Amino acid sequence: MNSYDLSGATWRKSSYSNAKGECVEVAFLDGGVVALRDSKDNGDGPALIFTDAEWAAFVRGVTNGEFTI
After folding, report:
1. What are the tens digits of pLDDT across the range 30-65?
2. pTM of the predicted structure, to 2 decimals
3. 26 near 41, Cβ under 8 Å?
4. Fewest CB atoms less than 10 Å from the CB: which of 1, 33, 51, 60?
5. Taking every pair of C-alpha atoms in the chain, what is the biggest distance, in angstroms?
6. d(Cα 25, Cα 39) in Å, to the nearest integer?
7. Are 47 and 6 in contact (CB under 8 A)?
8. Domain limits, the chain
């Protein structure tokens, strides 16, 4: 299990976030690693870590409509 120092990460909020701040934030890290977190935790909560290949597969799935309800 890898541990990542996210203290210097540059986080970006989703363009779909609402005024209440209930959204997700993403940070692209060195080495092709992507971090994802819930913004309501004010940066103190956990983050999911994805490899570049995992993130690409997720984005492909979203683009292809695999996660629609």
Report:
1. 889 999 998 887 777 789 999 999 999 999 998 999
2. 0.78
3. no
4. 1
5. 36
6. 6
7. yes
8. 12-63
